[in-house]
Write a structure and sequence with these properties.
- This protein has 136 residues and is mostly beta strands.
- It has one domain.
- The chain has strands at residues 3-4, 10-14, 23-26, 31-32, 36-39, 44-46, 56-58, 62-63, 68-72, 75-79, 96-99, 105-106, 114-121, 126-135.
- The protein has a seven-stranded antiparallel β-sheet, with no helix packed on it. Strands 3-9-7-5-6 form a five-stranded antiparallel β-sheet, with no helix packed on it.
- It starts with a strand and ends with a strand.
C-alpha cells in the first residue's frame, strides 16, 4: 500500500504491507511534512530529544493544530522537498538522520537527551524510517 497526497510529490509506504501502519489522529501542534511526532494522549505533538518520545513521522504536507494528522511509524517516505524538516531540499543517500528539536531531522545526533535515529536516506528523495533509540 502506498499513499499519495494531493501535492503529487509526497508519498509514504508502510514497512509491512500486511499491517495498517498509518496512524491517524488530531494535531495538537502545527505539523509539517517529515517532522517527528508523538501522541501525548490527546493528539500528535512535535517530538524532542529531551523527552525521548516518538510515534512516527508526519506524512501530510501540513496539518494545522486541531486538524487531522497522518503519521507513519515505519516505512518509506518520499518527497521532492525535505526543507520543512531536514537541513536542505534533498537528503544525503546512505546517511542516517537523527531527531533534532521541534521534530526536525538532521545528520548529527543531539548533544543531550535521547539519540533517536529516525532512519536512513536511500536516495535524495526517500527516507527509510525505522527509529532506533539510545538514551544518553
Amino acid at each position: 500500500m502506498s499513499l499519495y497526497f494531493a501535492d503529487e510529490y509526497t508519498s509514504a509506504r508502510p514497512l509491512h504491507q500486511r499491517q495498517s501502519e498509518i496512524m491517524e489522529g488530531r494535531a495538537k501542534d502545527e505539523l509539517l511534512f517529515g517532522r517527528v511526532v508523538y501522541h501525548n494522549g490527546t493528539g500528535f505533538v512535535l517530538a524532542d530529544p529531551i523527552t525521548g518520545l516518538f510515534s512516527g513521522i508526519s506524512v501530510r504536507r501540513r496539518a494545522p493544530a486541531g486538524a487531522a494528522a497522518m503519521v507513519l511509524p515505519a516505512g518509506t517516505v518520499e518527497s521532492k522537498d525535505w526543507s520543512t524538516t531536514a537541513e536542505g531540499e534533498s537528503l544525503e543517500p546512505g546517511r542516517s538522520y537523527f531527531l533534532q528539536t521541534e521534530g526536525r531531522i538532521g545528520l548529527v545526533p543531539p548533544a543531550e537527551g535521547a539519540i533517536i535515529r529516525v532512519g536512513r536516506a536511500t536516495s535524495q528523495k526517500v527516507l527509510l524510517v525505522t527509529f532506533d533509540l539510545k538514551i544518553l
